[in-house]
Give the backbone structure.
Amino acid sequence: MEKEASRCGDSENDKPPDTDIDSSDCLNESNIEKTSAATTTVAKSLPKNSIATVEQLSNFVNFDSTARKALSEIVKKYHMLITPYYFSLIKDPNDENDPIRKQCVPSLEELFDNPEEKIDPLDEEGTSVTNILVHRYPDRVLLIVTSRCFMYCRHCTRKRLWQENNVEPTLAEIQTSLDYVRKNEAIREIIVSGGDPLTLNQERLDWILEEASNIPHIQVIRIGTRAPVVFPERITRSLCKILGKYNKLWINVQFNHPAEITQEATEACRRIQKLGIPMSNQSVLLKGINDTPQIMKELCQKLQAIRVRPYYIFQCDEVVGASHFRTSVFKGIEVMEKLRGHTSGMCVPTFVIDGPQGKGKIPVGPQYMISMSPAKVTLRNYNNEVIEYHNPYSE
Ligand code: SF4
């Protein structure tokens, strides 16, 4: 099939919204059938013609028989699913170094066993208080509402959710997790994640957002999704009607390379922004994809231009099958050194290492303080100029 022609469409009656969509027209919408949320978990608007097998992939990418056999083993171990839209962003499907291809097409390097790598590198299971609720920090929780994604990123930290025996959370399990939040008033934020929550049946998503919003001490609900990046058509009129109802909502996305910021992705973000929902981006530092200051600067500047705040750059976690993506920590520091001061502070995310075994996010970056005494601090700026700064007297 022709790549361009294969871009996924949406169902006839659920087209992306017009540019003049007015979310206020849905505020009184009361025709959501809540009971249907219990019976089905998958959204109607899923990509058509996604690439899910090595055979399908072989229609576009040349593999010899040995590679094909190895890839079949990899796909059995770690799912593959590539949306036609995302695949169409690959310039040359036979170029193994293409930054888009690297994120979605399995590589033989995934079979490399590295003893440091784990199926659950952040010990999310060990810090869970229910089977789907991770409570690691005092004031926020992570609610894993699905294990499905529109596309399975090869560097994903949550490969444990891809295992065959993994079943989708039931409504009762989600309710139990929300009950835990209801009883813990120190929790002010729920991160709704997965998998990709936008793969959910919309009634179920609506129900989760409504239940979470109705908890008085919850101030922020954050959805983590890659839909605008890998399946921008998912940001439909009917989805926007649901999202627009909740004024506690933030959306976090994961753009990793400037080539992902297309017209389609920009439009998808704009539809979300028109609902008044703030957007931030969490990139993963990936070897051969975005691990140079130039690429990361271009990405962050493009994100700012589409009003998506660059929030984090993550060091790639020690997850199974991803050692070929992991860079030295020094590389991340070098990237940060070339960002801070060299472009607007609004374009500068925080580089973090997510501590193994659930130790939490630790910011890492260049050192700008050379020395410190009660009388003065000695600093350097982004141009390596040394500055003495008078330290005001304090008790
Ligand atoms: S969208 Fe997120 S959860 Fe899904 S495969 Fe990609 S990184 Fe993992």
